[in-house]
Amino acid sequence: MPFPGGLWWLLCCRQGFTLLRRDYGDADREADGEAEEEASFELRAQGDQVGATGTGTGTGAAAGRGVVSLLVSEEMRSLIVEKGPGPVEEDPDALVKGWLQREVRGGVKTPWIRPRKYWFVLTPDSLDYYSSNEKGAKRLGSLVLTSLCSVLWPDKQTYKETGYWSVTVFGRKHCYRLYSEHLNEAVRWVCAVQKVIDSKAPVQTPTQLLMRDVEEHCGSPEVLEQIYRCNPILRYTSSPLYAPLLPFPYGSLDQSAPGPRSYTTLRDEAVKLFNSLQQLESQRDPVPLIQGILQTCLDLPPLVDEIYCQLVKQTTEPPAPGGPGDLHYWQLLTCMSCTFLPSPPVLRFLRFHLDRTESRFPASEMAKYACFIREALGKTRGRECVPSLEEILVLMRRQEMVCTVHCPGAAACSVAISSHTTAEEVARELVSRLGLSQSPNLFALYEQSRLREQPVGSSTLLADVLTSLAGEEREQDAPCRLCFKHYGFLDTDNVPRDSLEFALLFEQAHEMVLRGYVPTSEETLQTLAALRLQSLNSDFSTHAPFPRLEELFPPHVLHARLPAPRPDPPTPKCRGARLRAGLLAGGLWGHSLAKQRAERDQRLRGRLREEGASTMAAIVEKWKLLQGMGRPEAMAAYVALVREWPGFGSTLFDVDLRASPVGAGPQRLWLGIGAKAVSLYKPGEPEPLDSFCYGRISSFGASDSSTFRLSVEDRDLLFETSQVDEIAQLLTTYLASTGARRPPRPQEPAPGPPLDPDPAALPRGLCPVAGPWQRPPPTGSFGS
């Protein structure tokens, strides 16, 4: 039975009054509870600090008590629950005051309920809000402001969703989400709150105060023992950690690492990491957990010091020194020391802990780990990747890794490396081991995969290179390896034919031929393929193994013989025509087109097989003519044919030339960097379009991440390429090797430094000062 209209009106009014009463009452009770909880927590935290540091002895403990008492007195001024009768317009402590809207309970602003306004007052110690601006109004809440608080600027996304500009202030236990209808007002509040936060003295945790006390009394064993005995926060614990050992800002400002991993605030992540450390004790295979902790530290660098402090805590007076759980902590500390370097205060505290462990447990496994860690800390610098599972296993045993380097034309070399070995150190060792010390040419390590090949920077850690190659190999499902090759050719005419360097030169020349970087006739390419077969298998035999054609002959030559595919019909511009075309494509006409494309592709593949078979037959006929030629003679003849091209010895880069930043479309060219000159080639043409000796080059560098600038006398050449760093570094290396000298020419907007390289160092000044986007170019070569 439906209710009468009057009864409906009464029920609606009653429900509305109930909602209003519940809204006002809950808001008041919520604010009082927040203020009381915030105040009591801050007081309790400060009391814990006094108890933690007041148990020490000597001047260090007294100093700790003095610092904490100052912090307590500063915080006590803003922890008064009742601040008089209410806000007063003439309050001298009020910095900013005004009406703001606060988010309702539940954290979601409903569009059909207008948020309620409160009177907010910002003082030098806190952010308070009242029910109104009248004298005697009740204070509904207060957020104590310390140096760890943070504030978020208003963002457009929130304004688009709600119609309000948001101001978020993060405290220790709570955050205030405030809203204003005007952007200027929101910015004024953000700037004022941030200024108060910046004026606060840095908050120090009990662990930081005790670290300072330990450093001050490192020469007093009795005082140190009393500090450790009276402060459990410095010792092992089996209980969970409810707060980090070091101070972290409240809130989540720019703390999310890019990529698939998602993180919460730094404080929460620090507590989670301590839980992971405790799980490490009972792990039968700790390697995956260790790698996960290292990955978190790489994603969130501020947590590095926190993990070091947690590991020092858990390895101090454990219940079973030297047991499996304790050794897992030391193994993680070993991996940390080879991956991350802590800040100076934490580093000093860590070194003291290592010395204390070695003195208390000499000749133990813990002492051996402590000695290894101390040596590693002296060599560690930033890592780009976390250690791989294989590297972690090696570090847990305090051993060296074995790196396999492939040398074209020679057997692979195994080199023992550590987590701190650079590519230049390995390259120098290989130069010495392979007898290339007297060669005038330059050598380097290369990362080589199916899709790319690039030199490894001389200062790059080889452990990072191996880790990245292993990841790339898993993604591409193709082998990736590390190679040792020529980096720069200073003299290719006087290389002895019976030397290992000539074999390297032969293999590198063959790679250039297969990539199409040796412009010559197809007849010469077939002759080169026959010489390659003679060097591999000696005389012709039907039982000799035949490599694939793409390993002997440039594949692009065969593809060039095929007819160009017919372009698809253009898409109609008229809407009706597009609709009809779409209907036809989705019906029988579309199936017919797909069938035609499949038949066309099949015909092209058949034509390609025919061309390949005819080319292989021609190569075999030329191979039969080389009967009796030895392997050294075949290699020498191959290199002699390639050397007929004037650009042999240059490193070619695919670039797009732009005459000016705004102009016609770019022109695809080869940029050849040689020992004496820089040349421009049209792809496939043997003669250069232009060539510039190094004396004509006034400066060069990167205009942006994909544009290389080359200043030649009175003109600037701009090249679009993805190999800006490689081109710049190779030019720098050749200039350092040849000792080219030329005074600088003024450049705009910044002048280029002089081309006067120091023979003992690479002339980095030739490149413009790198911007924030540009990393230093790799330096993967060196002179012998």
TrEMBL record:
Keywords: ATP-binding, Cytoplasm, Motor protein, Nucleotide-binding, Signal
Alphabetized Pfam families for the sequence: FERM_M, IRS, MyTH4, PH, RA_2
Region (Disordered) residue spans: 30-58, 736-784
Residue intervals of the FERM domain: 401-745
Gene Ontology molecular-function annotations: ATP binding
Main location: cytoplasm
Signal peptide from the UniProt entry: 1-18
Domain Ras-associating: 399-489
Domain PH: 93-198
GO CC, one annotated term: cytoplasm
Biological process according to GO: signal transduction
PROSITE patterns in the cross-refs: FERM_3, MYTH4, PH_DOMAIN, RA
Domain MyTH4: 236-396
Superkingdom as given in the UniProt entry: Eukaryota
Subcellular location: Cytoplasm
Ranges that cross the membrane: none
Biased composition (Pro residues): 746-757, 774-784
Official protein name in the record: Pleckstrin homology, MyTH4 and FERM domain containing H3
